[in-house]
Design brief:
The chain is α+β, with helices and mostly antiparallel strands. It has two domains: about 5-135 and about 270-280, Aminopeptidase (3-Layer(aba) Sandwich), CATH 3.40.630.30; about 140-265, Aminopeptidase. About 25% of the residues lie in helices and about 30% in strands. It has helices at about 20-30, 35-45, 50, 100-115, 165-175, 190-200, 235-240, and strands at about 55-60, 60-75, 80-90, 120-125, 135, 140-145, 160, 185, 205, 210-220, 220-230, 250, 260-265, 275-280. β11 (about 220-230), α7 (about 235-240) and β12 form a beta-alpha-beta unit. The longest helix has 16 residues, at about 100-115. The chain is globular. GO terms for molecular function: acyltransferase activity, transferring groups other than amino-acyl groups. It comes from Chlorogloeopsis fritschii PCC 6912. This is N-acetyltransferase domain-containing protein.
Length: about 300
């Protein structure tokens, strides 16, 4: 197994108390608002520094290139596996076209090949990753084909208050013991990416089902992005607890556990979120989507 001393660019947040500040100076330049997002997830009880392994090239004391590595515990085709996630890839504008990104990425892949069978990332620039063995994998959303005809039921959910300690504790409990939304592709025991991706979005708690739904309602359309619970209930059970009529449903994860008929449609999340995969990925021929809450 590799150690920090065997790598040129691998760094340790715990060993260098100035590293986080230096890194986020670079990240904020490329991804405005990311420092606030990192602060937000820390308030939710998860920390960027605990979840990400940073590979950073410095010029003197200035961080100029970064590639982060995350661990994503997944259930893939019924098997539990830890997948490596590549994230927050960037180079300082004044230090581009010097080969720094290639140098760091090559070292990242040496490290990852020792730890993970599969690597994933999402990007608007897939051409940057193809030279490193990543390939584009098509994803799908799932639209319900049977008539929903949900007339509206009881008011069976409430908005989580992510500033309230009790609600944060509730969310952590469910994330720790969640049932994967799918045996084709589901997430288990992951917090940091979820909090980063969804911590600023509405999260709805269905108390009698003991689950949190990441969802949006636009008119009479329900968009369901993730379900976090000890058991995955049917879509009908969720609709029954939504007080307004719903006649159209889009599901942004593999929906076989929801007991509903669907049509799979090719889809790029946010219009430009290409899924790139490296390694022997068992879903090449499947119709699926990595939940928004687990994307890096």
């Amino acid at each position: 197994m590799g150690t920090i001393n065997q790598y040129r660019f691998r760094r340790s947040f715990s060993e260098d108390p100035t590293l986080s500040h230096n890194l986020f100076n670079l990240l904020e330049m490329i991804f405005p608002g990311i420092r606030d997002a990192a602060t937000r997830i820390r308030k939710l009880g998860a920390a960027w520094e605990d979840a990400s392994t940073p590979f950073i090239r410095f010029h003197n004391d200035l961080a100029v290139t970064h590639v982060g590595v995350l661990e994503i515990p997944m259930r893939l085709m019924g098997q539990d596996i830890v997948v490596g996630g590549i994230h927050a890839v960037c180079t300082h504008p004044e230090f581009r076209r010097r080969g720094y990104y290639r140098e760091v990425m090559e070292e990242v892949l040496i490290y990852c090949d020792r730890h993970y069978q599969i690597l994933v990332l999402t990007t608007a620039q897939p051409e940057l990753y193809k030279p490193f063995g990543f390939r584009f994998i098509k994803e799908h959303i799932f639209t319900v084909t049977s008539k929903c005809d949900s007339k509206g039921g009881i008011d069976g959910f409430r908005l989580l208050n992510t500033s309230d300690r009790k609600d944060i504790k509730l969310l952590h409990r469910l994330l720790e013991i969640r049932q994967p939304v799918s045996n084709i592709l589901g997430i288990v025991k992951e917090k940091a990416i979820f909090c980063f991706q969804e911590g600023n979005n509405p999260l709805y708690y269905f108390q009698d089902l003991d689950l949190v739904a990441v969802m949006e309602i636009e008119g009479n359309k329900l968009k369901l992005f993730d379900v976090v619970g000890t058991q995955i209930c049917t879509l009908a059970a969720i609709l029954k607890r939504i007080p307004q009529p719903i006649d159209e449903v889009e599901i942004y994860f593999c929906p076989e556990c929801l007991d509903v008929d669907v049509q799979a449609l090719p889809h790029l999340l946010d219009g430009d979120s290409f899924l790139m995969v490296r390694g022997a990925f068992p879903l090449d021929a499947e119709k699926f989507m990595i939940p928004r809450s687990a994307r890096c």
